[in-house]
Amino acid sequence: MDIKNMDVRLICAGFALLGIFVLPNLASAGLAMFWDDFEQDKLGGQPSQWKYAAGNQKGEIIKDPKDGSNQVFSMPDRFPRGSFGFYVIGDKTWTDYVVEWDWMPAAGYHGINFRYNDKDNYYLADKRDGWQNFATGSFKWNEGDWYRARLILKGSKFTVKIKEKGDKTSFKQIDPEKSGVEGEDKNFKSGGFCSGKGLIDNVVVGKTINDLDLTVDGMGKLATIWGRIKTR
Description:
Layout: E1 3-13, H1 24-27, E2 34-36, E3 51-55, E4 60-64, E5 67-75, E6 85-89, E7 97-104, E8 111-118, E9 121-126, E10 132-142, E11 147-154, E12 157-164, E13 180-184, E14 192-206, H2 209-215
């Protein structure tokens, strides 16, 4: 599809707090708080390490449109019935944290939610207008292609950086004003990470950027030291 220059917006919406799911091989090493590549899940089923919170839409595990040997999570759409289905990792103990994930935009609306408390209280990183905007930026999405995203939450400040999947450029070198968004808001001080719309894969959560740098290799894959890896 054609490349579309879309606004990326951080939005304050105004889903229930849920348990943390920890994979011990990373957590015990003092690195990531959570990681998931969805390979352990059944095709057509639900993501086993994510808690379904609310809504009337369900997502499912599907084959990667770019690589049939790879499994990814297809996040639920808001439409046609007008209510999201929210899948959450983390809870109110998650305050400052960093998330990286592979992200394939869906047609039309797509986004990701964070500092999720309940169905009425969370932030939304979204490519369109909505609710209370407290930051805007831009990024050229090519729908149907994979990207790597990094979300940094520290105090009241939020940063989202995006690059093409496989781009070896360090996130530290990416300017969020050109490829992402920065913002600040004090409404929600804690909460989990939550699905929005589109496809996601290789999700890693750490307390600091260094945690993720040690867990994810330069191609955005989970590091080979941790075993289960996407080989595409």
